[in-house]
Design goal:
This protein is α/β, with parallel strands linked by helices. It is 49% helix and 9% strand. Helix 3 links the parallel strand 4 and strand 5. Helix 2 crosses helix 3. The two termini are 37 Å apart.
Length: 437
């Protein structure tokens, strides 16, 4: 490894230099070592390229705030070596990068495997809440609970060394890069584009994955035209670590039989690949339930939405910003309570407060949160102050910074107003920053 520029990723190659390249993408909080057990078999056919996420595994801490940014950095790294076409397997956040490649750079992708992945990872609220916890408490609470999310209880109990390795791997990640990755996952949503994925795809999931489980996997299979599903019994979220032999077998089978030829610019044609072979799992233990075969599902691409002339309606931007700042749960609750009397008001707020003002580029969201908190203290709007204190945490303000805003407001808005505001904000911060065990 050498010094890593800001627009590239920390990487390593294994395997023969003249073999086709197969990329392995890591999950949030992990390093390229999560693939160690797959590499010895894969290098028999491929030149394996692994990378670390920013701030993970000792990589330089240059945060990437979107999956598209991570994908661009990966391609910039590959461009240094002239790697133009490759197979790609990614786990969780690494799988999101794979979907981004398939949608934005299909000419580079020969075959795809999505492991413990989803077209949308939970809700934006869940990942922004995780960012709030890390910003306030550091990564230790996330690290201590990682084995519960990543492994089945039986595996964690039987493999204490691997469990401790997982905890330390998260604990040594750069907090700012972890928070940025959470923001990237919070904003990631490619459900509408799945029908446009045109590369042979294996969707692989652990049967006991409680993070992105079989239901999310089946959503991918139903949406991607050339996709097949493999459910690995006795595995949770970090299935390449928990069931390495089964995952290796599946990857070898998939990439050996479903490697789409490149477009030939001299003839203007692309060779038609043969029908992919059904993935076959390594025999499961006697007590494990056999996986159920799932047929390929093909869905025609949705018709493009009509383009309206003139200035875009700010409502769509407004509802997006409103959800990102206040959270899906809050916005869903407010909109559900609206009736014939109040619905027009909610539309006005969404369109003009959120679509016209909060979406303006002149101030970042942290600055807008500071201004909003101060105005709410001055007006005594304590109900709104609670929701906007949560919003300020999501927008990147720390509890200490919120305290400074309220102290400043005490001078200019009055001590009684600030006293009431402190009570509201204190309760919200306790609720939002207390780690969930």
């Amino acid at each position: 490894m050498s010094e890593t520029p800001m627009n590239t990723l920390q990487y390593r190659f294994d395997g023969p230099e003249d073999a086709p390249v197969l990329i392995l993408g890591p999950s949030l909080g992990t390093t390229w070592h999560m693939w160690d057990r797959q590499v010895p078999e894969l290098v028999k056919q491929w030149r394996v390229f692994r990378f670390d996420l920013p701030g993970h595994g000792g990589a330089p801490a240059y945060p990437a705030g979107s999956v598209a940014d991570l994908t661009d950095r990966l391609l910039a790294t590959l461009d240094q070596f002239g790697v133009q076409r490759f197979g790609y397997a990614g786990c969780a956040l690494g799988g999101a990068v794979g979907m981004e490649l398939a949608l934005r750079h299909p000419e580079r992708l020969a075959s795809l495997a999505l492991i413990a992945a989803s077209p949308r990872f939970g809700t934006a609220d869940e990942f922004r809440q995780r960012g709030v916890i890390v910003r306030t408490n550091g990564l230790d609470p996330i690290a201590r609970t990682s084995p519960d999310r990543w492994f089945t209880s039986g595996f964690a109990a039987a493999q204490p060394a691997i469990t401790e390795w997982a905890v330390q791997m998260v604990r040594t990640t750069d907090p700012g890069c972890y928070i940025a990755a959470c923001e990237a996952l919070a904003a990631f949503d490619v459900r509408a584009g799945l029908a446009s994925v045109g590369v042979p795809t294996l969707v692989l999931v652990g049967s006991d994955d409680q993070v992105t489980g079989p239901a999310e996997a089946r959503t991918l299979v139903a949406g991607i035209p050339d996709a097949r599903l493999a459910v690995v019994p006795g595995a949770s979220h970090l299935v390449p670590v928990e069931q390495p032999a089964a995952v290796t077998d599946l990857l070898v089978r998939h990439f050996s039989t479903a490697w789409q030829p490149a477009f030939d610019s001299s003839t203007g044609q692309t060779a038609i690949p043969g029908a992919p072979v059904n993935p076959v799992l390594t025999p499961a233990p006697p007590h494990a339930a056999p996986p159920h075969p799932v047929p390929i599902a093909e869905i025609a691409p949705a018709a493009p939405a009509p383009q309206s002339a003139g200035r875009a309606d700010p409502y769509d931007a407004g509802i997006k910003v409103r959800r990102e700042v206040l959270g899906d749960a809050h916005v869903d609750r407010v909109l559900a309570q609206a009736d014939d009397f109040s619905a027009d008001f909610q539309e006005l707020v969404t369109r003009y407060a959120w679509g016209e003002i909060w979406d303006r580029p002149g101030l970042d969201r942290r600055s807008r949160s500071v201004a909003t908190l101060t105005a709410l203290v001055a007006g005594g709007h304590l109900d709104e102050l609670a929701s906007h204190t949560r919003a300020a945490l999501r927008n990147g303000l720390t509890p200490s910074e919120i305290k400074e805003v309220l102290l400043q407001a005490a001078v200019y808005c009055g001590v009684p107003a600030a006293n009431s505001a402190f009570k509201v904000a204190q309760q919200v911060i306790r609720e939002e920053t207390t780690p969930t065990e």
